[in-house]
């Protein structure tokens, strides 16, 4: 069994969160065994007039152990298990592309994904070329910030400067890798121009610390534990790169990309960092039980405070923007829930 740990968020967690955090850790430790979990009741059609969850066992595909998907996914599993008849577990994964592929293969029942990867999946583009994924969205949840961090000794001041450098482009089949490759292409570089290191965030941070990597691309919520570790331990030796000059070319590929800012207070840097952001979606298969989709969507917002205690990124949860998942269609049960929430 693989041992998993959750990094404590940068923001102070109140004592009332202790029990939830403990349950989260237990859920993730169990899920860390990997492999297909025992699942029952996830795909039953469901009662289209009810928002009460039916008894079921479900697994949630998250992401790298030092990322927000992992922490928030564990918290979500705890909240679901504590407040419904569903027993949920969460598992560490390679993130977006892998999550959707294994969601379709019924290895997982719920999956975190970047909106650009989800759009590729339903349109049969990119990693899903010629094979559209039959998935629906429970909700848009929060935004990922593209965090490009480089060594100050690397001579890198733009993505164009990646040429000939050792750059971590994220885990294989991750949303980070999708964005990293699109940034490299938008900068006019070819894949072979960059010494790409396809590493998860933990190995990436280690590589930055020991000097074997010149820079990294990471797409994650704020703050991301691994980036906090890197910036604090290498203060003055790393910097964020402004990638917004590439935004028009990125938007030509997918309209979900937008400009954003990483506040200086997030990682204790000297100044804010301009960057590119992309929303995250929570996905299920199209045959996910209607009443369960309704129940879980409502739960996201009813228990928002509990999820914020797990990670501050959950503050972005908003029923007013939750339906903005196009081109991925909302699950009918989720639409009912959001209509009720107003």
Itemize the secondary structure elements and their pairings.
Blueprint: H1 18-31, E1 56-61, H2 68-83, E2 86-91, H3 96-104, E3 110-114, H4 115-123, E4 135-151, E5 166-168, H5 175-186, E6 195-197, H6 201-210, E7 215-220, H7 225-233, E8 238-240, H8 247-253, E9 258-262, H9 264-267, E10 273-285, H10 290-302, H11 304-310, H12 332-341
Parallel strand pairs: 1-2, 1-3, 5-6, 5-7
Antiparallel strand pairs: 3-10, 4-7, 4-8, 4-10, 9-10
Helix pairs in contact: 1-2, 6-7, 10-12
Account of the protein in words:
It is a single chain. The chain has 2 domains: 15-142 and 281-341, Periplasmic binding protein-like II (D-Maltodextrin-Binding Protein, domain 2, 3-Layer(aba) Sandwich), CATH 3.40.190.10; 145-278, D-Maltodextrin-Binding Protein, domain 2 (3-Layer(aba) Sandwich), CATH 3.40.190. The chain has 12 helices and 10 strands. It has helices at residues 18-31, 68-83, 96-104, 115-123, 175-186, 201-210, 225-233, 247-253, 264-267, 290-302, 304-310, 332-341; strands at residues 56-61, 86-91, 110-114, 135-151, 166-168, 195-197, 215-220, 238-240, 258-262, 273-285. Helix 5 (175-186) links the parallel strand 5 (166-168) and strand 6 (195-197). The chain starts with 17 loop residues before the first helix and ends with a helix. The model is unreliable at 1-41 (pLDDT under 50).
Q: Could you name the CATH topology of the largest domain?
A: D-Maltodextrin-Binding Protein, domain 2
Mean pLDDT: 89
The H-and-E topology, N to C, reads as HEHEHEHEEHEHEHEHEHEHHH
CATH class type of the largest domain? Alpha Beta
Strand content: 15-25%
Number of domains: 2
């Amino acid at each position: 069994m693989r041992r998993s740990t959750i990094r404590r968020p940068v923001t102070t967690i109140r004592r009332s969160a202790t029990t939830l955090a403990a349950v989260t850790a237990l859920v993730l430790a169990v899920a860390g065994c990997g492999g297909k979990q025992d699942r029952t009741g996830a795909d039953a059609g469901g009662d289209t007039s009810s928002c009460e969850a039916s008894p079921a066992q479900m697994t949630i595909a998250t992401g790298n152990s030092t990322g927000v998907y992992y922490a928030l996914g564990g918290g979500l599993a705890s909240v679901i298990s504590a407040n419904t008849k569903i027993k949920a577990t969460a598992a560490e994964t390679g993130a977006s592309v892998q999550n959707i592929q294994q969601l379709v293969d019924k290895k997982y029942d719920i999956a975190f994904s970047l909106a650009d990867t989800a759009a590729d999946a339903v349109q049969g583009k990119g990693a899903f070329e010629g094979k559209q994924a039959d998935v629906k969205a429970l909700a848009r949840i929060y935004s990922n910030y593209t965090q490009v961090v480089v060594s100050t000794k690397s001579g890198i001041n733009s993505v164009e400067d990646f040429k000939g450098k050792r750059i971590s482009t994220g885990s294989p089949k991750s949303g980070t890798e999708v964005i990293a490759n699109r940034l490299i292409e938008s900068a006019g570089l070819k894949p072979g121009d960059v010494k790409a290191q396809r590493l998860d965030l933990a190995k990436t941070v280690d590589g930055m610390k020991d000097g074997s990597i010149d820079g990294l691309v990471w797409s994650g919520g704020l703050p991301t534990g691994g980036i906090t570790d890197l910036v604090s331990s290498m203060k003055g030796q790393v910097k964020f790169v402004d990638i917004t000059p590439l935004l028009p070319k990125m938007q030509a590929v997918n309209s979900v990309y937008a400009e954003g800012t990483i506040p200086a207070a997030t990682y204790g840097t000297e100044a804010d960092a301009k960057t590119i952001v992309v929303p995250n979606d929570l996905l299920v298969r199209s045959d996910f039980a209607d009443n369960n989709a309704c129940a879980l969507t409502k739960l996201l917002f009813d228990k928002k405070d509990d999820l914020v205690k797990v990670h501050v990124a959950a503050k972005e949860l908003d029923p007013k923007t939750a339906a903005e998942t196009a081109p991925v269609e909302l699950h009918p049960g989720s639409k009912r829930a959001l209509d009720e929430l107003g």
